[in-house]
Design goal:
Elements: E1 3-7, H1 13-20, E2 24-29, H2 32-39, E3 45-48, E4 63-65, H3 76-79
Parallel strand pairs: 1-2, 1-4, 2-3
InterPro entries: Methyltransf_11, SAM-dependent_MTases_sf
GO molecular function: S-adenosylmethionine-dependent methyltransferase activity
Protein name: Methyltransferase type 11 domain-containing protein
Length: about 80
C-alpha cells in the first residue's frame, strides 16, 4: 500500500479514509484539543507538532497532504522541500 502524512489533519477525516483502504497514516496538527477529538474517531497515529519542526526523516512518507493549512504557516517555503 502507501504511507500518508496529513499535515493539519484536524479531526482526522482523511486519516480515517486512508486507514480504511489499508494505508499507513499519520496525522499532525498544532491543535491538541482538535487531536483529542480526532482520537475518538481515528485509530491512526496522531502527533501534536508544529509543521515547521516535523519529527520525521526526509522521504518518510509516500504521500503528504496539507489541505486548508498552508495559509496558516508562518514560513510555508521552509516547510515544503524545494519551496513553493
Amino acid at each position: 500500500m502507501f504511507s500518508l502524512l496529513d499535515s493539519g489533519c484536524g479531526i482526522g477525516e482523511l486519516i480515517a479514509q486512508a486507514l480504511d483502504i489499508g494505508a499507513t497514516a499519520v496525522g499532525i496538527d498544532i491543535s491538541y484539543p482538535t487531536l483529542l477529538r480526532s482520537h475518538e474517531k481515528v485509530r491512526g497515529l496522531l502527533v501534536c507538532v508544529d509543521a515547521h519542526q516535523l519529527p520525521f526523516r526526509d522521504s518518510a512518507f509516500d504521500v503528504i497532504t496539507a489541505f486548508d493549512m498552508v495559509e496558516h504557516l508562518r514560513k510555508p517555503r521552509d516547510v515544503f522541500k524545494g519551496g513553493l
